[in-house]
Automatic annotation (TrEMBL):
Protein name: Helix-turn-helix transcriptional regulator
Chain ranges passing through the membrane: none
Domain HTH tetR-type: 15-75
Residue ranges flagged as DNA-binding region: 38-57
GO MF, one annotated term: DNA-binding transcription factor activity
InterPro entries: DNA-bd_HTH_TetR-type_CS (IPR023772), Homeodomain-like_sf (IPR009057), HTH-type_TetR-like_transc_reg (IPR050109), HTH_TetR (IPR001647)
Length: 202
């Protein structure tokens, strides 16, 4: 039974509007960035009044926090949906593929690396921090397991591998390739995964 089947019509409408608001927030963030984004931008994009927007989110900071939490929840859901027979490395690769496709479709990277203000704001959001800790713990275990299996370099610190992995999810090369190369989405994802897991050697 889906979560929507448990809600009455009014609650369903509220939840659907909230999803639309977060979609619009993601779009505006991707195009304008946090500093230039305004509540008016989001309200105008989905055609609601700013007072209606404030019924859902009290501030721009709340909006961005909710958008990032939704992204992390999506990543956790993806990770938990992979077949049990996947190796640790296969799970890491499949999750990064999902994250890259989210970005190429106009979504946000895992890490808000381009803005100190966003990082500081998110670190004050306890729900966001909790989601980050959960996902990081899951991925760290996969990295260590992949190293033990010989699928990732066990001479490297797990932290180095893990944060290099995160960096791929926010690598600006993704946008440059999408905008300026003749590669389609599948080719971009395939090449980014190869660089991440195999390096630049033949």
């Amino acid at each position: 039974m889906s979560i929507f089947s448990k809600l009455n019509f009014k609650d369903q409408a509220f939840r659907l509007r909230e999803d639309a608001i977060l979609d619009a927030t993601t779009t505006v963030l991707a195009s304008k960035g946090f500093d230039l984004m305004t509540m008016d931008d989001v309200a105008n994009l989905i055609g609601i009044s700013k007072p209606s927007l404030y019924k859902h989110f009290k501030s721009k900071e709340d909006l961005v926090g909710a958008a990032m939490i939704r992204l992390l929840d999506g990543a956790t859901t993806q990770l938990e949906s992979f077949p049990a027979e996947y190796t640790a490395k296969e799970k890491l690769s499949a999750l990064l593929e999902w994250a890259l496709r989210v970005r190429l479709d106009g979504g946000l990277p895992f890490l808000p690396s381009t803005s100190n203000a966003v990082r500081e704001m998110l670190m004050r959001n306890l729900k966001y921090v909790g989601r980050v800790i959960k996902l990081n713990s899951q991925l760290e275990k996969l990295v260590i397991a992949a190293q033990k299996n010989g699928d990732l370099n066990n001479k490297l610190s797990p932290d180095v591998i893990l944060f290099s992995y995160y960096a791929r999810s926010c690598d600006p090369a993704v946008e440059y390739l999408q905008r300026f190369s003749k590669m389609d989405t599948n080719a971009i994802v395939e090449n980014m995964l190869r660089v991440c897991f195999q390096g630049l050697e033949d």
